[in-house]
Amino acid sequence: MTYIDSIGQEHPALAAGEAARIVSLVPSVTELLCDLGLASMLAGRTGFCIHPADIVRAIPKVGGTKDVNLDKIRRLAPTHLVVNIDENEKPTVDALAQFIPHVIVTHPLAPRDNPALYRLLGGIFGVPAQAERLCTEFEREYAALRAAPKAPAQTVLYCIWKDPWMTVSRDTYIARMLEEIGWRHWVSDAPAGAAGGAARYPRFDWSDRLVGNIDAVLLSSEPYRFTEEHVDALERQIGKPVQLVDGEMMSWYGSRAIAGLRYLRGLAGG
User: Fold this and answer.
1) In angstroms, what CA-CA distances link 103 with 4, 91, 113, 247?
2) Per residue, what are the HEC states of the chain?
3) CA-atom Rg of the chain in angstroms
4) What span, in angstroms and rounded, lies between the C-alpha atoms of 141 and 259?
5) What distance in Å separates the CA atoms of residue 130 and residue 54, rounded to the nearest whole number?
6) What is the mean pLDDT of residues 82-87?
7) What is the pLDDT of residues 184-223, one digit of tens each?
8) What is the dihedral of CA 194, 198, 203, 204, to 10 degrees?
9) Looking at the domain 2-144, which fold is it?
10) Same fold, 2-144 and 154-267
11) Is the pTM of this model over 0.85?
């Protein structure tokens, strides 16, 4: 049986008794592989792959998500590489594909994409029962979220970086998480090609026009480490409600998404 990844590539399931050596360049996928019971197959991970801490500390680091050490990965002799369209650079992935037989590309864009991701990796690596267990847990939390009262409708601005200020577009996983509780993400009206225009992670300035078009701001705890001090300073600057949110819960797909749905329900007050 074969499984199809996010760019339409087919991947065969491991044969009975066959072992894999996996390098994961995606922190949330590294956590998912561990939760699928595949930690023993992980040959390498990024320095940002920090969960579950007690397991990943024994797995060799190969660099960051965008600046990997090709020679180190080559020496690890992986059979499989797991990457993500948003998190990893295509030239790097292309270079790795020259000596890694199987490159699995992931690209979840909404919470509902998670069960397919569980089944993709569970199927390829021979743990379909574990994948179905996660699917069941996900569906339970998703049903609870859908049944909970929606938060008051509002337009929010989710900030992921400072100096320069950066946010997310509406076609990202984060924005679609917010939509699940009735929060619409701000969208830049800059023309395509302009600074901050038509980008998945656009830059922006705190203009009067922008502030007038939003109801609240969410400061993420990652990748930029926003703190309550940033919350207080920005509230004084723009005069709108500002809230610190857990970036892992809002942006990590994979097994973390199950807890993420629970966190989202709490964010909405449900």
Assistant:
1) 11, 13, 19, 27
2) CEEECCCCCEEECCCCCCCCCEEECCHHHHHHHHHCCCHHHEEEECCCCCCCHHHHCCCCECECCCCECHHHHHHHCCCEEEEECCCCCHHHHHHHHCCCCEEEEECCCCHHHHHHHHHHHHHHCCCHHHHHHHHHHHHHHHHHHHHCCCCCCEEEEEEEECCCCEECCCCCHHHHHHHCCCEEECCCCCCCCCCCCCCCCCECCCCHHHHHCCCEEEEECCCCCCCHHHHHHHHHHHCCCEEEECHHHHHCCCCHHHHHHHHHHHHCCC
3) 19
4) 8
5) 20
6) 96
7) 999 976 554 444 444 889 999 999 999 999 999 999 999 9
8) 80
9) Rossmann fold (3.40.50)
10) yes
11) yes
Q: Would you say residue 180 has pLDDT above 70?
A: yes
Domain ranges in the chain are 2-144, 154-267
Residue 212's nearest CA partner among 240, 173, 252, 171 is 240
| AA identity, residue 48 | F
Q: What is the CATH number of domain 154-267?
A: 3.40.50.1980
As a whole number of angstroms, the longest Cα–Cα distance in the chain is: 62
